[in-house]
Amino acid sequence: MSHVFAHRGSSGTYPENTMLAFKKAEKTGCYGLEFDVHMTKDREVVVIHDETVNRTTNGRGAIKDLTLDEIKKLYIKSGWLRKEKIPSLDEVLEWAKSNEMLINIELKNDKIFYEGLEELVVQKVANHQLQDRIIYSTFNHESVKILKKITSCEVAALYSRKGINPVLLAQSLNADAIHANFRVMTPQLMRDCQQHGIPVRLYTLNKPALIQKWLNEGLSGVITDYPELAQKLKDKKE
């Protein structure tokens, strides 16, 4: 069965990776939520996509060079009157206790390797007792190996380059699933994964025709900026 994951929340309509986007995603009835995490200078974990705050906030600087307090003083740049802030992972996990969504935490440690990020994130999830609702994913394949050693949660290998065999990638890393850019996946590669029992989730599926195509192929997860649209297409197909 295919499931819909809200990519950075309902980010096609609301400011990405904010509590507003996450709460709006929940209201769509979608199965899961996907978001990104980085580590701050004082070893806290915050939910943001980029390595810097430059694009999405009114501030400047790398996450690794800013403390949580400094980050919390910033506001998300958006057209909304409500001033959203960068949430901490603890904030999102605490809110997640109020619903039943599956949570895909992407560790953004492929461009900057945050020493100990894997252990810190896994511990925070354990502190909130949400282990049974977590999928970890990362482009850093060494990080996949670390996660597989320290958690029983599902761990997915992310990739976005053509020419990679997803079955061999999953097998070489002992990954539980594959998360791939839809542009590098083919129906045959997906069938190969399915034959080996490897779930495939594709990002970022936003156009109705693309969503419908991959739903018809039986992919495990639609990762989309528009969860309401994807959920309606999924419900119609079923």
UniProtKB/TrEMBL annotation:
GO terms assigned for molecular function: phosphoric diester hydrolase activity
PROSITE patterns listed in its UniProt record: GP_PDE
Record-annotated GP-PDE domain positions: 2-234
Membrane-crossing segments per the record: none
Range of residues in the leader sequence: none
Pfam families registered for this protein in UniProt: GDPD
Cited InterPro entries: GP_PDE_dom, PLC-like_Pdiesterase_TIM-brl
Protein name: GP-PDE domain-containing protein
